[in-house]
Every structure is written in C-alpha cells, then in structure tokens.
Automatic annotation (TrEMBL):
Taxonomic path: Bacteria, Pseudomonadati, Pseudomonadota, Gammaproteobacteria, Alteromonadales
Keyword match Magnesium: no
Subcellular location per the Swiss-Prot or TrEMBL entry: Membrane
Protein name from the UniProt record: TIGR04211 family SH3 domain-containing protein
Gene Ontology CC annotations of this record: membrane
Residues of the signal peptide: 1-22
Keywords on record: Coiled coil, Membrane, Signal, Transmembrane, Transmembrane helix
Keyword Signal assigned: yes
Transmembrane regions listed in the UniProt entry: 169-190
Principal cellular location given in the protein's record: membrane
UniProt cross-references to Gene3D superfamilies, sorted A to Z: SH3 Domains
Domain SH3b: 30-96
Top-rank taxon, per record: Bacteria
Amino acid sequence: MFKSFSLPLLVCLSALLTPALAQEPSDGSGKTVYISDDLYTFMHAGPGRNYRILGSVVAGTKVTLLQEDDQEGFVEIIDDKQRTGWVDGRFISNEPSVRESLPQVQQDLDEAKSALQEARRANDLLNQQILDLNSRNKQMQESLQSVQQDYGKVKRELDNKDNKVQIEWMTRGGIIALVGLVLGVILMLIPKKRRRNDGWM
C-alpha cells in the first residue's frame, strides 16, 4: 500500500519541481532593464500566459534581462527579489524608471535647494553691502554739502575782507590826498603872508 501511495506522490513532486528548475537562469549575466512605471506585471514560469504565475513585479522595478522569446513576446528576467521568471516583453523598458531615478532626482532637488539657499544668502549679503554703500554715499554727500557750505562761507568772508581792505586803502589814500592838499594850500598861503609883512616894513 505504501508503494502504491508513494508513486503518485513522486509524480506530483516532479511536476512541481520541474517549473522551479526551469526558473534557474542559464547565464547569470544579463542586460539591466526596467518594468514600465504605469503598471505591475505577473511573472510566469515560462514564456507565455498559460504558464503558472510565480508572483508579480512592481512597476518601476530594476530587473536583469536574461533572454527573449520572440515568438511569444516574453522575456526571462531576474527581479529584485532574485526570482527568475518570464514577463510580457511589452512591459519592459530600457529607460530607468521613475522609481529607480527618484533617489537621484531627490538628490538633485536637494542640491538645487542648497544652491538656491546659498544664492539667497549671497543675494542678501550683496543687498546688505548695497545698503551699506548707499548709507556711506549719503554720508559722503552730506559731508560734501557741508564742505561746500563751509567753502562758500569762507569765500564770502574773504570777499568781504578784500572789500574792506580795498575800502581801507581807498580811505587811507583819500585821507593822504586830502592831507597833502591841505598842506599844499597851507604852504602856498605862508609865503604870501610873509611878503605882505615885508611890504609893510
């Protein structure tokens, strides 16, 4: 009875092990491809939908392409869980998936944000420097206006002094001329008196 029971059991085990052995790839090296981003696909034990489903592969998964069956349009792959099976070739893409490229995109985004923050800090520093320069320029303009006002005041004072000196010189010249004129008149009058006195004698 044991022999009659073990024979069907061995047949069943061989039937289960045959697809599993068919999963082993003949070549460990293969081309890297990706499952399309907009779906998930079933992995079959052989190149066709009539083969047993081994599981599903999530969209965007990076897989290794082992071989292609052009007749059925299926390809043999090794997925990220190291399972070997066949999937519909229409769901295979040579371009990196969004899932695969997302970390790089995130890194690029972080670098762009960091560069943007650095640019903003540099811009803020430049704006502060511009404000400082504007403040210094305003101070210099105020100083220049003050110097110009002082210069105008000093110039007016010098002009007034020049006018006073000229007036003083003119006054002195007039006084000297007047004194000379008076002395000349006096000198002219003195001899006449003496002559008159001499005539009386």
